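User: Here's a protein and a ligand (iron/sulfur cluster). What would the complex look like?
Assistant: Let me lay out the input and then the predicted complex.
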Amino acid sequence: MEIRLAKSAGFCFGVERAVNTVYELLKDESNHPVYTYGPIVHNREVVGDLERRGVRVLNTPEEIRGIEKGTIVIRAHGVSEEISRLISARPGVKCVDATCPFVQRIHRTVREESLKGRNIIIIGNAGHPEVVGTKGWSVREAAVIETAEEAQNCPLDVNEPVCIVAQTTFRATKFEDLVARLQEKGYNAICMNTICNATQERQTEAGEIASKADVMIVIGDPASSNSAKLYEICRRVCERTYFIQRAEDLNLQLTGTEALIGITAGASTPKNIIEEVRSHVGSGNEF
Ligand code: SF4
């Protein structure tokens, strides 16, 4: 039986950079107390470890206003211009911006294109923090579209020019379909496919492995949208796909005839958890 771990499994560049930033800041007492605006990564293990080291998660603008010293870290997802200004303006508080450079590029595009007079359409999930942040960089109207129905009912004026961007973790094929639907409606649109390569590569590789695997394991937090999407992609081609958060969750029922077990993990899954799952599967342990 072969166990194949996807090369693209686990932290992407942006998340790794943001998590490392927090650990680095903790090394220097002068940065303390350290806060993150929202959990630094959608992973309870990592957030729990940081909590034990004294990192507190802020969730609202009011909580930011209550901070008088220390460091507030903006996570890889980024924040709206308003939140960014609010943190930077706090006297006695250092703002460390760990927004992923790919997300920063979307913020710049949204800001520039809206300043030029284009309304903004973000293809993504309206409740996702990255999308909430991106929307907050538009100086004009912005709409978030996630489904064909929403594309059909897009509230933006079809006679005004629009700029379409994507949530970095959105599925490419669905993005293309929604863009086509919006264009059919007659929008004069410039379209930026801002889906991150890390996501595309992870999704493609997961699909390829799952299509050959007898059993596929996707490791990730259910709150992480890219992990849930990986599961969806794998489940479509491999019926025996498991979605777990860590090794203990795995209730692997092997028949002994399996030739290939595939493993992948979402962008917010740390290496140690991936290794733990791989070694448990390899050792044939039951959970
Ligand atoms: Fe950055 Fe891509 Fe990771 Fe998002 S998925 S944080 S854009 S590297």
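Summary: The first strand starts at residue 2 and ends at 5.
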